[in-house]
Amino acid sequence: MVPLNWYLTLAAALFCIGLYGVLSRRNAVAILMGVELMMNAVIINLVAFWRYLQPTNINGQVFAVIVFAVAAAEASVGLALIISIYRRRNSVIADEMNLMKW
Amino acid sequence: MPIETLIWLIPVPPLLSFFLIWLFANRNKALSHTIAIVLMAISWIISLYVFLTAITTEHFGAEVFGHSVPWLPTGDGALNMGVMVDPLTAGMLFFVPLTCLLIFIYSVGYHNFGGRLDPHDVHSTGSPAHNGVEPMYSRFFAFLSLFAFGMLLLVVADNLLMMFVGWEIMGLCSYLLIGFWHGRNYDDPKKITPRQAAVKAFMTTRVGDVFMMLGIVYLYFHTGTLSFREILYNEDVLHHLAETPSYIVGLSVAAMVGLLLFAGTVGKSAQFPLHVWLPDAMEGPTPVSAMIHAATMVSAGVYAMVRMFPLMSAGWHHGEALTPPMMAMGFIGAFTALFASTIAVAQRDVKKVLAYSTISQLGYMIAALGIGAYIAAAFHLITHAFFKALLFLGSGSVIHGVEHGVHHTHEHIDPQDMFNMGALRKKMPITFWTFLIGGFALSGFPFVTAGFWSKDEILADAFVANQLVFWVLVISAFLTAFYTMRQIALTFLGEPRTHSAEHAQETAWTMTTPLVILSFFAIFAGFVGVPEHFPALGELFHNLNVNRFHEFIGGTLIEHPEAVEFNVFPLLASIVVGVGGLTLGWLVYGWKPLKAGQPDPLAKPLGPIYTLLENKYYFDELYDFIFVRPARWISEVLVYQVMDKNIIDGFLHGVARVAVAIGIFFKGAEKVIINDPPDRLADFTQWLGRSFRVIQTGRIQSYLLIVMLVAVAFGGVYYLMLSGLVK
Amino acid sequence: MSISQILFLIVGAVTLISAVLVVTMRNLVHAALCLIATLFSIAVLFVLLDAGFMAAVQVVLYIGAIAILIIFAVMLTRRVMADGSEQTNSQWPLGLAIAAAALASVAALLNAPVWPALPSVDTSLSISALGKALASPDGYVVPFQIASVLLTVALVGAIAVAGEKK
Question: What is the ipTM of this complex?
Answer without folding.
Answer: 0.90
